[in-house]
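SAMPLE LOG
Freezer: B-3
Tube label: C17
Construct: single chain, 574 aa
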Amino acid sequence: MTQPSFTPSFKPQFKKAHDFIDWKDWAPRQRPAPVEFRLAGRWWRIGWLLVPAILVGIACLVGSTWVIETEWGRQFVARYPGTVHAPAIEAHGFPLWLRVTHWTNFALMTLVFRAGLQILADHPRLYWDRDSTPGTEWFRFQIPVPKDRVWMAKDDSVTMPGWLGIPGGRHTVGVARWIHFSFDLFWLLNGAVFLVMLFVSEQWQRLVPRSWEVFPNALSTVIQYSSFHMPVEDGWIRYNALQQLTYFFTVFVAAPLLLVTGLAQAPAIGNRFARVSRHLNRQAARSVHFVLLLWFILYFAIHVTMVFVTGFKKNFNHIVLGTLADTWVGFAIGTVILLGVAILWAAASPLAQRHARAVQRTGAFLVGWIKALMEWWDPGVQYTEKDISPHFWPNGKVPTSAEYLALRANGFRDFRLEVFGLCDAPQAIPFERLKAIGKQEQITMHYCIQGWSGVAKWGGVSMRAILDLAKPRPEARYAVFYSFDEGGEGGTFYDVHKMENMLHPLSMLAFEMNGETLPELHGAPLRLRVENELGFKQVKWVRAVEFVADFKHLGAGQGGYNEDVEFYGYRMPI
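STRUCTURE (predicted):
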C-alpha cells in the first residue's frame, strides 16, 4: 500500500545523554529543611522527641526498679522469668543457612533503606489522605509550599547527601528506584529462603510463640532490662519472650507489610484493585512504608546494642561460626564482615553516580520483566467528582518556543496534531476535528514518580480513535509522543509507549481537566493519559505522534527523555 504524502512540520532535536550523572547539568543543590512532624495541629522539630524519650527512659528506669523491689514484682519476675519453656523440642544453635541469610539480609537492607530515603527526598512530605494537598502533610523535611509563586513538584525535591542516600544529590530518583527495586528483589529471595528453611527445620520455634505466657514473660523482660537486671540469656537454645515477640513481628508482620505498602504505591496496582486504592491509598501506603522503615532502623539499633551488652564475644561466635566456643575468632570474622558492609556503604553512591546507565540497564534486566507483566493488569478504577483533589501538583516548564506561543495566542485554534510514521494515513489533525471526534471523560488517580498523587477528571479523545484515523501498520509496535516542551537539559521531550497500552479504553489525549479547558501548566493543548503508568510517561504539551517499529534510534535509545537523561525506566507501572 502506498503511503500518502505527509511530512511532519518539525524534526525532533534529541539531547545527547551521558551514561553517568553529570552534576553540571543536573538539578542544583537544595538543602533539606529541618525534619518536622505534625502533632496536635502544630509542627514540631524532630529534636523535640528527645525530651519525651528521655522522660520515658527515666520513668521506665525508676518505675521498673520500684516494681522489681516490691514483693509483687519479685513474685511476678519469679513466675515469669522472661523465657517460655514450651513442651515441644527447642531449636539448637544457628545453622549455616541461618547465618548466611542473616548477614545477607543486613547488607541488602542497608542498600534498600538508603535508596528508599533518596526516593523520599524527591517529594519530602508524607500524608495520610489520598490527595497530596500542601499543608495536609504530617511529616516533612521541606519548607511549607510557597503561596506567592508557582511551586513545581521538582522544586520540592531536596538534596540527599551521598553518604546517606544512594546515589545522593537532588532528583536522582531514577537511579535510586533501580537500586531500591533491584535489591528489594534479592531481599525477597533471601527472605523466601529464610522462611522455607525456618519451617523445614526446628528453627521456627525460636520465632513463633506457642503460649499466651509469652506476653507476661515479655513484660517481665522489659522490667528486668529497664531496671538493669539482665534476664537469663539462653539464645543458643531459645530467645526470651521479648526477643521472640520482636522477631515474630519483624519477620511475619513488618517485612510483609513493607512489600504490601510498596506495591500499593504503584499505579498498575492502585488503578487495578479498587479495595487497595480506596482503603490503602498511595499516600497512606507511603506513610506506613516510612513508619516501617523507622521500625527496622530502631530494631537494628537495639539489636546491635544488645549484641554487645549481653556478651559480644559469645554472640559473634553464635551468629558467625555457629558454635559455643569461647574464642575471639567469631568476633574477628564478624568485624571483617562489618568492614565489608562499611566499604559497600562508602562505595555505593560514587559507583552509582559514575555508572548510572549500567545501573539502569542492570535494573531493567533484573526487575524490568516484573514491571512488564504488571502492565497487563486492567487499570480500570475510576473515582467520583467528590474525590477530585483540591491540589494537583504541576511539573515541567510551559514551552516558550515561538511556535507554541503563537498557537497559544489564538487559543490553539490553529493547532494540528501531527500523526505520522508506520501508518497508512499520516496526517495533521486540526484541533477542532479532534474535539469533534467524541469526548471521553474519566476520573482517575495520577501517580507521579516523585511520590505525590492526585485525582482529576480528564476529558479528551480516545487513543483508539486516533489509531482508527491513522491506521498504524502491523509492524508499528510503539507510539512516540513528542512535546512542544524541551527537557530540563535541552532537546525535545518525548516518550514511548507500547501499542497495547494505546488500545486500552482509558488511554486518551486530554484537552480538558476537571470540566474546564486543560490549563497550560498541565499540558495544553493536549496531554497523554495512560492510567497504568507513572506520571512522567504521560506527556504534556503533545504536538505529534509517531508510530515506529523500535525506539533504539531515538535519543539515547532508552524509550523517552527522562529515560535517556535521568535514567528512568521505560516501562513504569510501579
